[in-house]
Amino acid sequence: MKKILSILLTLVLLLGLTACGSEDNSSSTPEAQLTKANVYVLSGPTGIGAANLKAKADKAETVGDYNITVVAQPDEVVSKISKGEADIAAIATNLAAKLYNKTEGEITVLAVNTLGVLNVVTPDGVEITSLADLKGKKIYTTGQGSNPEYIINHLLEKNGIKDDVTLEFKAEGTELLTVWSTDPTAIIIAPQPVATTLTIQNQGAKIAVDLTKEWDKVNTDSALMMGCVVVRNEFLNNNKATIDKFLEEYKASIESANTDIDGTAALCETYGIIPKAPIAKKAIPNCNLTYVDGKEMKTKLSGYLNVLFAADMTAVGGKLPTDGFYYEG
Looking at the domain 34-115+223-325, which fold is it? Predict the structure, then answer.
C-alpha cells in the first residue's frame, strides 16, 4: 500500500510540474499576442528604412508578422489606408497631416523616419559652402507649390536673402538632371536620390549644402522632418502589442540601413525603393534616415508643420493636426 501511494504521489507531482511548465511557456510567448500587419511604404528615401525589415519579414525572421509592400505613388497609399487595406504606412509628414484631416483623425503618426532630403548641388568649378553664398544667384529646383518650395523659401528668409535669390522650378525632379547641359554653371537644389544621381553623372559635381543642417541652424523649436510612419487608429486600438513590436523592429531596420549601407543599397534595388544599388549606396548617407518618436517627435514635427501651415495651409490639409495626431506610447 505504501508503495502504491508513493507511485501515485510521484505521478501527481509530475503532472503538476508539466501543467505549470506548459502554462509558463504560453504566457511568455509574445508572438501569440501579435496580429499580422499590412505595411505599405513609398519608394524613395521614405521607404529606405523599411528595406531590412522587409528582407527579414519575407524570410519569416521577424517576431511580428508583416506583409510589406513598396509602392511608387502617394495616392495609392492614401487609398489603401482609406479602404483599411493598409494598417501601417511610411509616407511624407505633410501627407500624414493631410490624411489625418481628411479622415477626421483616423490615423496616428508613430515615428519620424526621415529628416530633410534636399541638397544644394554644384557643378565642377562652382564653390558654395553655405546658404549665404546663394545671394544674387539663380537656383534651379523642383516642387513649386509644395514642400520643397516652402522649405527653401523659409530658409532663404531666415538667412535674410529671400529677395536676393531667383528660383526657377522644373516640373519633375528628373528634369534637374539635364539642367547643366544648357547652363553648365547652374546651382541646383535637388531631393535625394536625384541629388546623388547628379554627382554620379557629372564629374566634379558635389553636394555642397545639406538643407537639414541649415534648418537646424535657424530653427530651435522644430526639425526638418519630411518622412514618417503612420497607423490606422482602428488597428492601433486593437493591436497595441503588435504596433509596439513593429516599432521596435522598424527602428532596428533603420539602424541597419545607416550601418550596413552596402546591404541596404542592394535591397533598395531589389525592392524598387531606389532604382540602382550604386545610387542608393551614395544616397543613403545623405538621406538623413532617423527614428524619432514620443515627445521629441511631437515637439519638432509640430514645429515643422507650423512652418508649412504658415506658408500654405493646404500643405497640411487646411488645419494643423491636434495632439491626437502624435503617438506617445
Answer: D-Maltodextrin-Binding Protein; domain 2 (3.40.190)
Per-residue confidence (pLDDT) for residue 143, from 0 to 100: 93
Residue 280: how many other CB atoms lie within 10 Å: 27
Question: Within a 13 Å sphere around the CA of 21, how many CA atoms are in the beta-carbon half?
Answer: 6
- CB proximity list for 237: less than 8 A, separation 6 or greater: none
pLDDT at 51: 98
Grid cell locating 313: 495651409
**Residue 56 grid cell:** 527579414
Cell 505633410 found at: 94
Intervals of the chain under pLDDT 50: 1-5, 7-29
CB 65 within 8 A of CB 243: no
Q: Residue 124: which residues within 8 A CB-CB, separation 6 or more?
A: 202, 203, 204, 205
CATH class, range 118-218: alpha beta
Q: Where are the domains of the chain?
A: 34-115+223-325, 118-218
What per-residue confidence (pLDDT) applies to 27?
38
Helix (H, G, I), strand (E, B) or coil at 314: helix
d(CA 117, CA 45): 8
